[in-house]
Amino acid sequence: MVKGTLNELSQLKQSGFGQPEPRHGLNLLYWFAREYILFDFGEIKPKFNPVFGEFGFHKFNNRIEDEDHIVPIQNLPYYEVGNLNYSNADKLPNYVRQKYSHYNPDSNKDRIIVHQDGNGKLNRVYVTEHSDQRHFDSSKTYRVSNGLLLIIKNMSREDFLSKVSNTGNRTNNQQPFYYQQHSVYQSYSTPVNHTPSPRPPPPAEDSSWCTIL
């Protein structure tokens, strides 16, 4: 079953959803909150009906797995989005798709699941991830509150990522986290056995100088 409800950015960060790169869940959630939904007196209305399959939405089959359901049993349908291999998923913005690789399952494991009521509104929104190619992980499934979605909707993507990413919001010119972990000196073009030149000592008269690693 659902592990809990995410009400704040800090809770989203602590959940680990969509992290680390190349996972796309955080960007997917930002797109969903910013571009896909509208708020109508506190209720969520989709700009596009998920039944028509825009952006790769398709019906979610709430299968019984280990005598449990990923999300609560409801008479009305659930829909999921986030499978970058699915039909029409190429209409998602580039910032959602840019890290995707067919050879790396982690780049396509995150999903958003929504429950649509009889009036076409989305009364439940969940985030989850695949535990393998077929099954979702109930211990990594969370409901996302309307309040948190509204917070995200009113943020820039850069600000959102900087507040919820456990590795910080890295620009395109910075090294990937893998390289940051292994060496702060080694660049893409520097041989592994290269010994960096010593840095010059700081000028004696400038007490504000410091070594930047």
Automatic annotation (TrEMBL):
- Give the residue ranges for region: Disordered: 188-213
Top-level taxon in the UniProt lineage: Eukaryota
Give the protein name, as stated in the record.
Answer: Uncharacterized protein
